[in-house]
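A quick aside before the break. I want you to see a complete sequence-to-structure record at least once, exactly as it would be stored in a machine-readable document. Don't worry about memorizing anything.
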Amino acid sequence: MRAPWFLILITTPIIHSASSFGQFTTTKSRLHSPFHQIKEIAIDAKRNNFSTAARILFSDLRGGGNENEGNSECVGSAAPEKDSNKGNESWGISLSLFITYLTVMAAKCALPSTLAILSSTNSGLIHQSTKLSRDDVISRLLALSTLSIAAGKIFLGPVIDSLGGIKSLQITLLALVMCLGSIGIAQTCPTLSSLALYIIIVDFGFSSCWAACVKTIREYTEEKRWSKEIGRLAMAARLGNAISFAFFAWLLQWVSSRTPANVVISGVDTSWRWVYRASGTIQLIPLAMLTHFGRKGRDDLAIQKEVKSNKAEQTTTRSSPMVSLSILRRQARKPEFWLHLLSRTITMVLVSFLLFIPTFMTQCYEMSTASAARVGSVFALGCLASVSTLAAKTYPSSDSARMQSQSSFQSNNDQSLTPIYKRKACFMAMFLALSTGCLSAQMLFLNSIIDLSSTLGSMLMFLWGFSLAIPFYLPSSVFSLKRGGKEGAATIADAFDVSGFGLLAVFNGFVARVIGVKGDLNSMLLHRKQAWIPVFSLMLGGSIVAMLSLFSAVWLEGKHDFKSTN
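That is the input. The structure line, written in tokens, reads:
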């Protein structure tokens, strides 16, 4: 054990110095020095308490800081040990939510990864309908899956608030394991109709995942970490998409290369079933993690209720659906609710344009299919870059924002605190102004006013993704956590998404019709570019509306909260 602990002792000052750069500081408190952390690690190592030593080492990397700050002189006492348990439990819940959303979003990519095979006659699925063609069945499947998500957003929010976030996620993951596993078995999914039924159930369960994760954050995480936790969920979503598309493409190729010769001769391609088998199997990982850390979290929260009365809010008392709906009705009377809903709805449409980016780049920039597909990854990379670096800095929660204000003005006690909501509102407006600029450049290109190369077009897609991720994920989710509370966070989060998925279904249908009429590759480049002008005109107008509505929503929400705390 000497070598690992020697490495820990050497790297602790480096990690501490790097992670402390740019961090917020609190007033009238002395931060632990790197050498004091070494002392704590050495004490815990001698007591064989390796988990606590590792937590101290990596706490700054997690963004949680040192929970034992201010109690360094009593490292071995009972109070720091309880704080240590709380930190370990919070870390476990955070990691579990990250893995959960990553695997769920990866499974969501199973259908688009196999859609081309499912539409063909050699998929091995029996087509029983005499009135509908195979393409018609697939088209209705896609429409019904979107409606299934919208239905889940309508009905499952109060249920999640009643059951709790972790239990809701456990039920959803079990349903995904069973349904995706059944699709991967020929005996349980022999027809297109059975496939459609399983996909509808999967999407209905998928609709609950974001709200359930938000609910879990509300139950187990302190307010000052909400922005970071939501940012991690956004990172998990984008990583899940990127990793799954690459992995499923490799899996299909690997299975096809090992298909027996007699099956190849028959023309039946069942390699797609392995994608669903893998998608169902990986859900067992977050299911086990949620079960383990969720049980520990409930035990720790029960102990904290007896020790500290101010932790009573984090207990596992459940609300009823009627209470959740009453909270939703109360918030719906306030203008900031509808402004958040409007911006969330529009940004959902803009972010979901990712599905059409390869087609757009192929038709208007004359890129190859493979290169155009990589531009979709560039857009996702832009989203990932913003939420991984700027989420907590541009949209901090109220506690950390208040701490920053106190630190900034501690030398001037007679000067009032600067409201942080003004800076948050300006940051959101700046992000969506960048989105508006990217769309304006694309509009100038489509109208042949300027000429853009495929490289510049790809850079615009990166900047566009960079500008959309934080306005889409953070403001409405933090609003749900703060205004919904423990009883209504999931209900409000789902209410924001209902109109978004409804508008998204209409927008996707509009884009499909526009592309189908004028966007085929046999037409002239000028005609193909003109076919996309109505689409980008709508998105440009939506980006402007979202910028104004989100700025107003954050401003009104922050002004109300600032007045209530002063």
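Two observations worth writing down. The two ends are 53 Å apart (CA to CA). The chain has 23 helices and no strands. We'll return to this after the break.
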